């Protein structure tokens, strides 16, 4: 944790408790859309860790693979994803979830300590989904999603793009996430420091801290290094 100049936070499962998120999201969708949602998740699992270089190339690859499964036009699927699926995510977050305790206070604290911050999600419309949880996006240095960066977690190229945007080195960055197979794998491969938050999906052999412990650790560390 020495010489940390930036903290990257995963979104889903890290900044809020996402228990039951998929089930609650599906409640917002019509039956035919539920089937598309299931197929979308299968495509995402197949392409986990890909890096295509940019958003256009990612969309071409992702929706081509999606179309092969559901036998629909890629352009039609992309429109459904943007206008139906992601909007349902936002609606579900507003209805069913809230940010973890002191998220806004933590971002404000890091900003006051001149530590750069980023929120990083696999899915698009990260800013809108943060706002659905009443997270103050103005206190965050950068908001990113893997799709805009050209791939999916845990591709290290995506993290390098974020640190380049933040103007810090990977080794000067702390990544806080909830999944060792995506957040942890990518962060460690990129040379970052990594802390995993305890969730209902944490495996018994994984080293984690509770969200409260993470907040306390960060505050103690950066106050000590003033």
Automatic annotation (TrEMBL):
Class of enzymatic activity (EC top level): hydrolase
One GO BP annotation of this record: DNA repair
Catalytic activity: 2-phosphoglycolate + H2O = glycolate + phosphate
Cited Pfam families: Hydrolase (PF00702)
UniProt-listed Gene3D superfamilies: HAD superfamily/HAD-like
Annotated metabolic or biological route of this protein: Organic acid metabolism; glycolate biosynthesis; glycolate from 2-phosphoglycolate: step 1/1
GO function term, MF aspect, one: phosphoglycolate phosphatase activity
The entry's keywords: Hydrolase
SUPFAM superfamilies named among the record's database cross-references: HAD-like (SSF56784)
UniProt record similarity statement: Belongs to the HAD-like hydrolase superfamily. CbbY/CbbZ/Gph/YieH family.
Entry protein name: phosphoglycolate phosphatase
Species: Treponema rectale
